[in-house]
Amino acid sequence: MTSPQLTHEPVGHSHSHGPAAPVSRHLRKVIAAVLIPFAAAVVVGLAVLWPGGAPAHERSGVGFDRQTEQGRVTQIHPVDCKDVNGSQVPTTDPTAPATGAPSTGECKKATVEVTSGKDKGRTFVEVVQPDAPRQFHVKQEVVLAYAPDAPRDLQYSVTDVNRTFPLALLAGIFALAVVLVGRLRGLMALVALAASFAVLTLFILPAILQGSNPLVVAVVGASAIMLIALYICHGLTARTSVAVLGTLISLLLIGLLGSVFIDWSSLTGNTDENTGLIHGLYPGIDMSGLLLAGVIIGSLGVLDDVTVTQTSAVWELHQADPSMGPRALYRAAIRIGRDHIASVVNTLVLAYAGAALPLLLLFSIAQSGVGTVANSELVAEEIVRTLVGSIGLVASVPVTTALAALVVSADRTESVDAAPGSVPGSTPPGQRTAPPGPLPAPSGHGGRGRRRKK
User: Which residue has the higher pLDDT, 149 or 420?
Assistant: First the structure.
């Protein structure tokens, strides 16, 4: 019995995260026959649903739907709160609800200069109560709400702090760390991240605002993000294509489960002031469909991680032992997948719990039971979002592992393309062949037969 021959990887198939086991031309054609129509359908969907920008509307002046300008705090003077309570001097946010009786003690009177817009250079006074959560300092950059229909002295008010510089600095540190550690792969990841944000802001959000079905928009947009991100980061290879197929199947499962359980649980998607404002400004938007779209898009990033990891694990296992069949590859790689499932599902649940922590605190203060908390729509949305995403995540591991095992082991005997000038079936250069000769006589009756012939 001869030992199995190792595959010889052509230079063109090498990849920065390790050489991928080559597949035959026939198998590449099969993968292309599946993915090319899918990619074409995504391109057609983008073209048909492309919004061309968010629709215009008249600002309501409420919440985020306010005209804003930039400003800077130039002076701060202490003042007795009794001297300003009941006056026409605006406080930190005139649109915020009252918190109780007027404050007493020492307030701060901040002089704020408008630094953008048609009133650039204009100043106004803002009073900061001593118990206000946001306190100002001189030269602080702030965001101003502008109400053109209000009296002149009340047209501007401070609505938030300008955080552009610290956020930009943090983003720069993140990009530098990714490039320093990931090098070319890290740079490609940043390019893919920028492309994902472009699809989100230029296609998904405006298309939903224009009245397109949120579920269809989310499926098309998520598919475009998946194709762009995976192929940019991991290359146009059979290994990446298998990860794309596994991600696609899992996204379809998430969409199906999400649609069924969001409808069954009677989740409206209109649960807080932000979604209420969206529904008020654009009543034609299907809010439950918007909720489902959020589930699909939110699950995509974690799915990419799992499917790429599982596909790479199968390829590396095959490289280590090319004699392994699809079942052996699946059993070995699924053990890696089980560890991945345990950690990622826990990550998903904790991420959603952390986002809903203030809400959970309110329920805890009210001493509500677990059943009451889970039954409320605010929490039920997060439960459905978490569980549907986790089911799709769990399903992606066996699905992607099985696909990768079948693909990588389907052409074990055709692991290399024929070398230039070689003849099919010939011995590769440098490999010895057994000398021709008679086959060895089988043991047992074969030997007695020769003696009888003599």
Answer: 149
